[in-house]
Amino acid sequence: MDPVTRKVHVRVPATSANLGSGFDTVGLALDYHDELEFTLSSDPLNMAAQILITGEGENTLPRDESHLVVSTFRRACSRFGLSKCGFIMEAHNNIPQARGMGSSAEAIVAGISAAYAFSHEGELDRDVIFQYAADLEGHPDNVAPAVYGGMTVSWTEDGQSEIVQGEVVNTGFRSVNYLVDAGVRASIFVPDYELSTAQARAALLNTVPFADAVFNVSRMGLLIGAMNPSALAGEQDPNELLFTATQDKLHQSYRAPLMKPSAELIDLLREHGYAAAVSGAGPCVCVLHNGDASDDLNQIATAQLASGHWRVLHLNVDTQGVQVARL
């Protein structure tokens, strides 16, 4: 199959998963993006990938076929029927690496979306991209908001798979979008240290107390309403709802020893009434609030921000998810 265009621009949002109570299920797209441009070579003998990176990871990310975007793009091009060819990928990265803001999900979604745009006319089929991305990532909680935008709740239906090009593909991933009030903001405190998802996952228990599971189920149910309080009956303080909805007993306390500065910052912010939680697997800290709280949060975290070990991003919610433009 010949590509439908020679150049594609892709824009993918950062994400924050879990949001406290919604462990491995909830994700939120943030108005903070990586932007990538793919240009296909017109030389049929050129099969090489030329990789240009600016911003986050420019001194650490690989510039060969092992780069996650590149390897994903190659696989997706094959899946969608495109012949292998050379290309230039220019990545302008804003999303921090290994911090809990969905950098790996972004890379996978970017590679698949670019391949889809080269191989198909019209709008992205987001359901196709979501299924493929979740299969490659292994779980759907970060890729769902990266694909669809907004707040998503995702799950996996057991036993659903099919054979695609000789590979067993999990087709059981599902996701739904929930409305987020226009006033909801996310402040992300970004530390200067990393934590791998594998390390964070290894710190978890294989079983948890029944009461702790019930605790999180109740907060998770509340979280959906807290993110869109106008849909609730009666008068509710949205920030009080967010504070309660982000409580957790399933994962954060077990991971806290791996990210002590983050755990200390979460405690400090919650002592002041803010809905602070670990962003994804950490070590970023996500603070949800309805209305502009940036000045107050900056004041509370004065010592951390002045230390040079932390920075803060005050962000809106991204409602669009991945965007592509054929150039």
From TrEMBL:
Query: What GO molecular-function term can you cite, just one?
Result: ATP binding
Enzyme Commission identifier(s) = 2.7.1.39
Catalytic activities: L-homoserine + ATP = O-phospho-L-homoserine + ADP + H(+)
The main place the protein resides is cytoplasm
**Domain GHMP kinase N-terminal, first and last residues per copy:** 68-150
| Annotated keywords | Amino-acid biosynthesis, ATP-binding, Cytoplasm, Kinase, Nucleotide-binding, Threonine biosynthesis, Transferase
Tell me where in or outside the cell this protein is found.
Cytoplasm
Q: Name one GO biological process term.
A: threonine biosynthetic process
- Known InterPro entries for this protein? GHMP_kinase_C_dom, GHMP_kinase_C_sf, GHMP_kinase_N_dom, Homoserine_kinase, Ribosomal_Su5_D2-typ_SF, Ribsml_uS5_D2-typ_fold_subgr
Any single Gene Ontology cellular-component annotation: cytoplasm
PANTHER family per UniProt: HOMOSERINE KINASE, HOMOSERINE/4-DIPHOSPHOCYTIDYL-2-C-METHYL-D-ERYTHRITOL KINASE
Q: What does this protein do?
A: Catalyzes the ATP-dependent phosphorylation of L-homoserine to L-homoserine phosphate.
The entry assigns this protein to a family as follows: Belongs to the GHMP kinase family. Homoserine kinase subfamily.
What is the official name of this protein in its record? Homoserine kinase
The scientific name of the source species is Bifidobacterium animalis subsp. lactis (strain AD011)
The UniProt gene name for this protein comes to thrB
